[in-house]
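> tool_call: predict_assembly(chains=two)
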Amino acid sequence: MDSTFERLKAVLLKTYPLDPSIVRLDQPLDELGIDSLGVGLLLFDVEDAFKIKFSADPGPIRTVGDVVSFIDGVLEAQHREAQASPVSSLPSS
Amino acid sequence: MRRIAVTGIGLVSPLGADASEVSAAALAGISAIRTIQMPFADRVISPLAAPTSFDGAEHFEPAQLRMLDRVSQFAIVAAKRALADSRIDLEQWDRERAGVFVGTGHGASHTLDAGYRTIYGERSDRIMPLTVLMAMHNSPAAWIGGEMRFKGPNLTFSTACSSSAVAIGEAWLRLKRGEIDLAIAGGAEAPLSLGSLMAWSAMRTLARVDPTHAPASCKPFSKNRSGMVLGEGAALVVLEPWERALQRGACIHGELIGYGLVTDTEHMTRPSVVGQAAAMRAALVSATLEASQVDAINAHGTGTQANDGVETAAIRAVFGRRADAIPVSATKAMHGHLLGAAGALEFVLSLMAIREQAAFPTMHLDVSDPECDLDYVANRARRNVSIRNMISSSFAFGGTNAVLVLRHPEAA
């Protein structure tokens, strides 16, 4: 299975005409043409692509790596929740 | 008070994207009205519209496109075209004295439709995160201001069908008084969504489909008129002080010399002779013009039973006997009713009529109506018409009636 970074990269490349080689973890989003409004749209797309729902405030998101960390944190929390109550909680898409 | 020149025109319209192209189509009597080809067409009582061939993907990167309702796409593209046409070098201007004035009646009807469809139709909470930004009424003006970095007034006018005439008039007032030195003014409308088509159908103001020729369905001033047809698009113009336009050698399309704004308080939707006549008189006073000096009229002329007879009587009330000698054109028969953008598009067509020294035809005027007995330039354009001064009328639901007065650029 692709890493979170690879999956996020695919989401980014779908919307933004980027050279794939410049999409790195430490790459500031604004240098990719993604401003604060774009971050909102990106997170919306990520919810669809990863079939997750962000309920918490992501806090400051500056780089591609920040998005990856946020996604991983949510996926991890969902995993823990699913293990605690196996029938309850995979969110519907 | 300063004189104000129109030095740039930008269009996205059912008749084309360039003023000369639109003018040629209108002179040829070409109608952009057709039966709508949309998935929901069968649900609309009157499945007619005057769409544009505009494709946002040709003008915006995908990332920006998804932040823009169709109405903002129209507005931005038309504003850029207007600025390009004006050949203004913005580096030579104080942007704090440059303003944006945009009229829109419906605003972002596609975004709102999509949001409601998601929430109510699909029972999902996943509406687009920028729905507020896309759907706010001032979004088209704000995007234009951002693109041009105009830091003066950024104003949105929503007075239904007179919105963009009001926007142009209000920009003119600020320019005349010397409060600003440059304005982009006009309107944008994108009402061809299921929600707004259904809403207009429910008002029972839309035209029936002409059984023999759908493009002929809108018939202003004809006895068999049955209503209006919605159109989409944007029309923006660049306005600047006359002297500055001369100094920089600008191509001056015309002079805006007057603006009448009067509210008809008799009824929310039913037009009145008194209200429409008052707006025309106010415009003439504003232009310091006698009724005898008006050479042509671009009428509001919607093709509804309610408007056209009243407008005829209002023109007679203002112009008296001279009314019979004034060509009155109702171009909505060709480009449809662009609602909040209608006044601006018709202002541009009036500039073209002055440039061409021609009166546009009122198409599909099949049957004369005793209540509509003016010279409507029926069904065929008229060339070699001497037009020095012309008025363009926009009357609105809610009663905000606006009339603009234009002058030939060489008729100082």
